[in-house]
TrEMBL record:
Residues 6-247 form the ABC transporter domain. It comes from the Bacteria. The keyword Phosphoprotein does not apply. Keywords: ATP-binding, Nucleotide-binding, Sugar transport, Transport. InterPro entries: AAA+_ATPase (IPR003593), ABC_carbohydrate_import_ATPase (IPR050107), ABC_transporter-like_ATP-bd (IPR003439), ABC_transporter-like_CS (IPR017871), P-loop_NTPase (IPR027417). It comes from Inquilinus ginsengisoli. This is Simple sugar transport system ATP-binding protein. GO terms for molecular function: ATP binding. It holds the Pfam family ABC_tran.
């Protein structure tokens, strides 16, 4: 069987005496969108922070396509093809869409010493990316980020991850505080990212949003994975809610792994 894109194995994390994660396994396949669900304090953010290099695990291993990797920092994670997009993505509101797509990785024009940014190249890539990510409106790449809606900003962050060819895009609550149309836009951007070969981990408290976009749902509770193979096409929101809250301990959905 082919190795999954990402495999986190036996991950545990203690904050002092607080056990945030206990023996967690998580896999993400190629071109797969995995929804990570769980109540407040279940351990989702901690797991994602470990995968994105923000914090080290207390124990456990991470494999990318079967190769064991050490992710010691967020820069490390990006170099390994893992990009994380937070709710208020790290975008600079005063700068243009094009500049934000390249922040810190701008193409240079002419002699290196002069360090002149190649604005034409950045604009051309930005135009193409906005189209690929699925922004239907014709937004010029010179538009400052500050004048975009929340959903469009998420799109720019997703486009950035696509351009730098991140294998895995982690989206932490990307639809928080967004209106209905905007949310639909972000869900579409995520599907487009998957369709062009990127994998995603999608974290959201709104289960309805998760159901609309993911291929598989993983549920965490009190630092453990309690279900890891829920197919949203074969269950419903109420059933998943019962698993999240622990009301389905008997495994009635047929998806709760024996612990
Ligand atoms: N820096 C920290 N120091 C001590 N305990 C922490 C720290 N960060 C998280 N925890 C604890 O670890 C556990 C898991 O928290 P985590 O933030 O990962 O959960 P979560 O599922 O992301 O919750 P939420 O949906 O509320 O963001 C909780 O008990 C939390 O209180």
């Amino acid at each position: 069987m082919a190795e999954p894109l990402i495999r986190m194995a036996h991950i545990s994390k203690f904050y002092g005496r607080v056990r945030a994660l206990e023996d967690v396994d998580l896999t993400v396949g190629e071109s797969e969108i995995v929804g990570l669900l769980g109540d407040n304090g279940a351990g989702k953010s901690t797991l994602i922070k470990i995968l994105s290099g923000a914090i080290p695990p207390t124990s456990g291993d991470i494999f990318i396509r079967g190769r064991k990797v050490e992710i010691g920092s967020t820069t490390d994670a990006i170099a390994q093809g893992i990009e994380t997009i937070y709710q208020d993505s790290a975008l600079v509101t005063q700068l243009s869409i094009a500049r934000n797509l390249f922040l810190g990785r701008e193409p240079i024009r002419g002699p290196r010493l002069l360090n002149r940014m190649d604005h034409a190249a950045m604009d051309a890539v930005a135009r193409d990316l906005l189209k690929r990510v699925g922004i239907s409106k014709d937004i010029p790449p010179g538009t400052p980020i500050g004048s975009l809606s929340g959903g469009e900003r998420q799109a720019v962050a997703i486009a950035r991850a696509m351009h730098f060819d991140s294998d895995l895009i982690i989206l932490d609550e990307p639809t928080n505080n967004l209106g209905v149309a905007e949310t639909q836009g972000v869900l579409r951007f995520v599907r487009n990212a998957r369709d062009s070969g990127h994998s995603c981990i999608f974290i959201a408290h709104n289960i309805h949003h998760v159901f609309q976009v993911v291929d598989r749902i993983v549920v965490m509770r009190r630092g453990r994975v309690v279900a890891d193979d829920i197919d949203p096409r074969h269950t419903n929101v109420e059933e998943v809610e019962r698993i999240i809250t622990g009301m389905a301990e008997d495994g009635s959905a047929g998806v709760v792994r024996a612990q």
